[in-house]
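--- STAGE predict ---
source: upstream dedup step, 1 unique chain passed
mode: sequence only
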Amino acid sequence: SCNLGSINLVKFLQDSNSLVWESKIDWEKLSSITKLGVRFLDNVIDANKYATEDIDKMTRSTRKIGLGVMGFADLLIALKVPYNSEVALNIGRTLITFIRNVADNTSMDLGKARGTFPDWVNSDYTNNYTYRNACRLSVAPTGTISMIADTSSGIEPTFALAWRKSNILEGKSLYYVNKFFEDTAREYGFYSDDLMEHLAKGGSLQDREDVPEWAKDVYVTAPDISPTAHVNMQAAFQDAVDAGISKTINFANNATREDVQAAYLQAWETECKGITVYRSGSREKEVLTVGYEEH
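--- STAGE serialize ---
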């Protein structure tokens, strides 16, 4: 029941306090993985076989790598922080800045040991920045990779609590349920078969009166997040990312051209390097669809 969920609300909100989330992240492990990732991607440049000589030459001249992230939405859920909140933006900025600093230092160490990228002399870098790689960070879509890793895609919010990914594996569909939600619903007393059936058919959690407001906030999905909040999250990560960011700005089916224009202007004003928008229902065949029913 909703009342039972409210009994545990104090503990839930204490756990999501913005002053304690930093202590819940293993920064030492994140640093170690980041260093390993930079070294691995730098080695891939030399080990790779390129399709053409021009691609080979261009890749080796700048040695750009694209170390990125995925699972950010799952991290926020684990921390009990709503995706479209100021705390989430702060977490995003802090994480990507930390990763950027470690990646930069690792690339400079490699530059000193192995030499800077060949085109370094024509770059804007000074002798204080002996980078092995012209670019270090990017945020790729990680759509299928994140499915294999059983985590959320890139820096995208949770698409839905139950969804279908279609037109993959020779036209087949795969079905998914958010791995955290059912446990949370049971722990805080608002689980019901009716609720799960509602979500399985593509219903929104926001429409349910039997679900506490805090649960609706933490388990907010991409269609329920405003375009402004989508762009704000992309901008928070873009501050520390040299290359582009894959991020879909979701719009409802009734979005207007003016709505899309406003998102593009916001992305430009916040110095995002690119923007992708998608209006729900604008394609006959969509890769991600909510619910289990055939449409």
